[in-house]
Design goal:
Length: about 325
């Protein structure tokens, strides 16, 4: 049997399973596509890279919890207390950093250890004592709420000032770090797949679906590269500010050489305001040049033009 026929047979088997009710992840994928189409048609901002970057940041915690719940659901069980268990672990981390003055690299492993203890206790009740997971997790759902109230207190919020924790929550990776992360994860995925097929060949097993895996891996790598490229595009307002200031200077340059008075002063104000916001140099940014000679204004224009070009090179990616 040829490899192409094997791929076609695999696709037919998958379609037979779908018709039999074994849909797998198909409803989730179709639902995601429908949501993207609906919200994309309602708003022109939804399908932009900036919005997807915000969605990834906002959904990161829920995504990590969902990844753990997948294994619970594959075993035919359920965990109703996963959200509050994560909340208890987060409260342990924050309290150790803010109130107990522990470093984040000490508080973080302790919070992870707390999560392991909570999960191990639930697992023991379900696996060893044979209590239904619905009953156990419903009880721990209520218990973890009370534990969280005891840890946090009546205020309900704790202010975080640790720069590392704030950076993990709010800051982004640099462009170079993003691409390094992409290449490392993609390379690890491809090498793990190749290692699996190598072990199968050494064991004397036939790998008829190697080409199918290769096509899937290439597709995932291309999608990951496209996502990394889209999410590393400059999304701040600095580029727009520079462009507006540059357009203002270009529109007044001809008149500047003609009269050397009001138009040049306007260009100075635009550039000085911009440079004050970028360099935080208030004393220099608030200067006003009142030269009567137009040539002096043009000299100032040339000086600030050179400064602006250097500034673009300095802050450009």
């Amino acid at each position: 049997m040829s490899e192409q026929i094997t791929i076609e047979k695999s696709l037919r088997d998958w379609w037979s399973r779908v018709k039999a009710g074994q849909v797998g992840a198909l409803p989730a994928i179709l639902g995601l596509l429908v949501l993207c189409i609906v919200f994309g048609s309602l708003s022109s901002v939804f399908l932009t890279p900036g919005n997807f970057a915000n969605l990834l940041t906002q959904a990161a915690a829920v995504t990590v919890i969902a990844m753990g719940l997948v294994f619970v659901l594959l075993l035919g069980e359920i965990d109703l207390s996963a959200g509050y268990a994560a909340g208890v672990c987060g409260a342990i981390l924050v309290i150790m950093v803010t109130e107990m003055d522990f470093a984040w690299y000490i508080a973080f492993p302790v919070s992870i250890l707390g999560g392991i203890i909570l999960g191990a206790g639930i697992g023991y009740l379900v696996a060893q004592l044979k209590i239904p997971s619905f009953v156990v997790t419903l009880a721990t759902f209520l218990a973890f709420q009370g534990l969280l109230l005891l840890l946090v207190g009546e205020g309900g919020t704790i202010r975080i000032e640790d720069p590392v924790i704030l950076a993990v929550e709010n800051k982004n990776l640099s462009v170079s770090a993003s691409w390094i992360f992409f290449f490392v994860t993609s390379g690890a995925y491809v090498l793990s797949g190749l290692w699996k097929f190598t072990k199968r060949r050494r064991a004397g097993l036939v790998d008829n679906l190697f080409k199918f895996w290769l096509i899937k891996s290439i597709g995932l790598v291309i999608i990951g590269a496209a996502a990394t490229s889209a999410l590393t595009v400059e999304r701040s307002n600095n580029h727009t500010t520079r462009q507006l200031a540059w357009n203002s200077l270009c529109s007044t340059s001809d008149s500047c050489f003609a009269c050397g008075s009001n138009f040049c002063t306007h260009a100075h104000v635009v550039w000085l305001t911009y440079l004050r916001s970028r360099w935080k140099c208030r004393s220099r940014a608030t200067r006003r040049y009142q030269c009567k000679d137009g040539s002096h204004h043009c000299i100032h224009d040339l000086f600030w033009f050179c400064c602006s070009r250097w500034n673009d090179l300095r802050f450009s990616r």
